[in-house]
Write a structure and sequence with these properties.
Helix 1 runs antiparallel to helix 2 and helix 2 crosses helix 5. The protein is of the alpha/beta class and about 230 residues long. It has one domain (about 5-225). The two termini are about 20 Å apart. The protein is elongated and about 70 Å long. Mean pLDDT is about 80; it is low at about 195-200 and about 200-210. The protein contains 7 helices and 7 strands, in the order βββααβαααβββαα. The strands form 2 sheets. A 5-stranded mixed sheet has the order 3-2-1-4-5. A two-stranded antiparallel ribbon has the order 6-7.
């Protein structure tokens, strides 16, 4: 597959499934939330049936099929979106989120589980290996607070959705984070130095990618040959 010369940073969230470093947003499908009424009804039907009866077994089967449908919808979404992202870019940068720790927040646990960020990341990595692309996870620290234009810290609460910096950069909060994620990844891979500003990525990023990408892709293909089939 011919290199595209493109790299993309992704910032996942609950308002949107992700916002990328180009400013594009993908809606969160919220399959579980949309199916809650149907699942609750199926659960009540199980509770009403006599334990050990055939009717209870049938109700349990209906409940299981309802949960399976949600699971399949979530997987289908993750697979198709991950394939599209990987096929369109040579490098995809994501945050190295510890989802197990995040779901300890009982107020957000259901929404985080419904978003299935871990599933999406698994499929990103699978398709990257399959098509000879690179998916890299970077530390999530300060990606939302740092300015993608000058690097200064701009503190903001979760309720503030627009990043405004004294350097003149005004961006959607999540787009700013996605750019920072991409910058971290390119630095880790050696495409840019610490002295290169975030706003210079669009100007020189693609040229640097063309120069160095073949080496990285060769390494990735070697890993693919050594790894067992997924």
């Amino acid at each position: 597959m011919q290199p595209t010369g493109k790299a993309l940073g992704l910032d996942v969230g609950l308002n949107h499934f992700y916002t990328d470093s180009n400013g594009e947003k993908i809606d969160n499908p919220r399959y579980l939330r949309k199916s809650e009424k149907r699942l609750s009804k199926a659960q009540r039907q199980v509770s009403k049936k006599v334990k050990g009866s055939n009717n209870r077994k049938k109700a349990i089967n209906r409940l299981g099929r309802a949960h399976l449908k949600v699971s399949r919808q979530r997987k289908d979404f993750a697979v198709k979106l991950a394939r599209c992202v990987v096929m369109s870019n040579d490098i995809v940068a994501v945050e190295d989120l510890k989802v197990r720790n995040l779901v300890k927040n009982h107020h957000l646990a259901k929404s985080i589980s419904d978003a299935a960020w871990s599933l999406f990341r698994e499929w990103l990595q699978y398709f990257a290996l399959k098509f000879g692309k690179v998916v890299i996870a970077v530390p999530p620290h300060f990606t939302s607070q740092d300015c993608s234009g000058c690097g200064e810290i701009v503190k903001k609460s979760l309720s503030i959705r627009t990043h405004v910096c004294k350097c003149g950069v005004v961006l959607d909060r999540d787009e700013n984070a996605a750019i920072n994620i991409l910058v971290k990844a390119l630095r880790l891979l050696g495409y840019i130095s610490n002295t290169v500003g975030q706003t210079e990525i669009n100007a020189c990023g693609e040229m640097i990618l063309y120069l160095k990408l073949e080496t990285v892709l060769k390494q990735n293909r070697s890993l693919k040959q050594e790894s067992p089939s997924l």
